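Thread: quick sanity check before group meeting

JM: Hey all, I'm pulling together slides for Thursday and realized we never actually wrote out the predicted structure for the chain we discussed last week. Dropping the sequence here so it's in one place. If anyone has concerns about the input, flag it before I start.
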Amino acid sequence: MKHTIPTRKVAWLEAVSACLAFFGCSLPAATAETNVTIQSSIYGGSFNPPNVSISVNDSVRWVWNGNFHSTTSDTSLWDSGVQNAGFTFTNVFTSAGNFPYSCSVHYFQGSVNVGTVGNIPPSVTITNPPDGAVFSAPADVTITATTADGSGSVTNVEFFQGTTSLTNQTSGPYTTVVNALAAGAYAFSAVATDSLGNTATNTISISVVTPVAILLSNPLLLPGSQFRFDYTADAGLRYVVERSTGLPNFSPLMTNTAAGSSVTFTDSAAALGLSFYRVGRLPNP
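JM (edit): ok, ran it. Output follows.
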């Protein structure tokens, strides 16, 4: 005897199958989370890794390993505020594009590439000399740069003085020396290129000055064993003040970077009796 399934029941099974297929196709795609560590260093800090690539609707989670740092969008899309070690902050990226950001305290930078995986440029930073440094003429200046990979690996760093190429180096440490710079203003750049042809540039400016003669003036004995005088200087150059109570032996009292053309120094513990003072300009770093 043959057994058959009623037509009405078959139709119901087909409807259930179609329904399961429909809901199966509608399940949302899984999203991903990428971690970035915020860490301190002698230069202020860094994002690690500095550049990340994610897909639309993925998120980035920043984890603080250092203090007094933030993750702050350059275009005001997000701002964690300044936080300390142990804090975390997450942002979901709902549209494609490149989103640069920085620490609002120490200004180190990073970027989030959304939906454009495979084209993140490298980064390069001139770590010496600092931007705005002042040297006495003639100046020998050592320029040093560090890099971080993007989508490709860094293949070379080229140094420039203005538009003139100084050297092109294919491996680190990336450094070059410029000798006997005369008084004037100078711009130096480091250009990093990676294996995909992407480039990144960092530029700094320095000044070289002809130092003025150091002249001491306006000596003044103050109450409480204090002695004060002024000396001429060049803003941005470094000086040392020394004292002697028995020539020719001098002892350093203070070193400083001059803020202007005249510096006032006060010896708050001047020795009793006769003392001699002298000021010297320190060598270029």
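AS: nice. The helical segments are 7-25. The first strand starts at residue 33 and ends at 39.
JM: adding both to the slides.
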